Amino acid sequence: MIRPTKAGDTEALVKLAAGTNVFKPHEIVALEEVLGDYHEMNHAHGHQAVTFEQNGQTLGFAYFAPAAMTDRTWYLYWIAVTKQTQARGIGTKLLKYSEEQIQKANGRLYLIETSSLPQYEQTRKFYLKHGYEQHAVLKDYYADGDDMVIFRKHFG
User: Fold this and answer.
1) Model-wide pTM > 0.70
2) In whole numbers, what is the pLDDT of the chain averaged over residues?
């Protein structure tokens, strides 16, 4: 089931993200800060954090929010599924849930950014499979040789 993320979930979500072996150490630190900010204040500004649970186990989460100073544009900041349950539909459920919530909020555009590094290849294929277009590549954004790849989906 997908439910709102609680403050008590933070430790498990940080551990889950670290366990994927995809995110860099500073990204894991940032996730903990993002979740802290979410519970402290950002939930009041339309940010949404959701957790996927099954049989009492946390198997995934997503964090998405409206983009400041835009007309109904949203960003997917985080989506992660345990390494052991990847490619079993949990990420799809989280992504679809976020899209539904954005559409209920009258969102018109959903943006996702990720890395061009090889360990993100499955992530990039995941977004393409779900109807996102690869819209832009910012060369050397994260570091030399690590481009930012931007995906988008427009809700009609």
Assistant:
1) yes
2) 93
- The rounded distance, in Å, linking the Cα atoms of 40 and 75 is 20
Residues in the chain: 156
- Lay out the sheet containing 57-66: strands in order across: 2-4, 48-54, 57-66, 73-81, 109-115, 146-154, 133-143
Query: What tokens appear for 149 in the block?
Result: 């790849």
Kindly report the CATH number that applies to the domain delimited by 2-154: 3.40.630.30
Is residue 87 scored above 80 in pLDDT? no
Q: Whose CA is closest to 43, among 35, 53, 54, 31?
A: 35
Give the other-Cβ count within 10 Å of 108's Cβ.
Answer: 14
Rounded Cα distance between 119 and 94, Å, is 21
Token pair for 10:
């933070």
Backbone φ and ψ of 93, nearest 5°: -60, -40
Among 47-56, 76-85, 107-116, the range scoring the smallest mean pLDDT is 76-85
